[in-house]
Amino acid sequence: MRALTTSDLVTLGTDQSGSHVLQAIMTSASDKERGKILRRLEVRDQGDVWNSATVSQRQDIAKELDQFACHLWAKFALTHFVKRRAQWQEIQTDQTKRKIFSDILQ
């Protein structure tokens, strides 16, 4: 992964098969490694994709992002994060404990 340029990572992430590879890497990476990868995939690099897209491609991207954003907003309880930060932190801690205990019980 270190040998890949930011452009290569963006290409990998936007390719149908490559996105699965990138997802597998992100899932198996440590927090530190994930952070390094995410920093290399800064928002401004995604702006290059947007800037080079046609209007119809931008519409497709916007539709996908809208659906994706709604899903992530609910999945990550971001309303709690914005309005009730302490409760959100409590939810995150509970989920971490559940995962630890489920691993032990299996």
From TrEMBL:
Transmembrane segments: none annotated. Gene3D superfamilies: Leucine-rich Repeat Variant. InterPro entries: ARM-like, NOP9, Pumilio_RNA-bd_rpt. GO terms for molecular function: RNA binding. GO terms for biological process: endonucleolytic cleavage in 5'-ETS of tricistronic rRNA transcript (SSU-rRNA, 5.8S rRNA, LSU-rRNA); endonucleolytic cleavage in ITS1 to separate SSU-rRNA from 5.8S rRNA and LSU-rRNA from tricistronic rRNA transcript (SSU-rRNA, 5.8S rRNA, LSU-rRNA); endonucleolytic cleavage to generate mature 5'-end of SSU-rRNA from (SSU-rRNA, 5.8S rRNA, LSU-rRNA); ribosomal small subunit export from nucleus. This is Uncharacterized protein. GO terms for cellular component: 90S preribosome; nucleolus; preribosome, small subunit precursor. The keyword Cytoplasm does not apply. Keywords: Repeat. Pumilio repeats lie at residues 3-39.
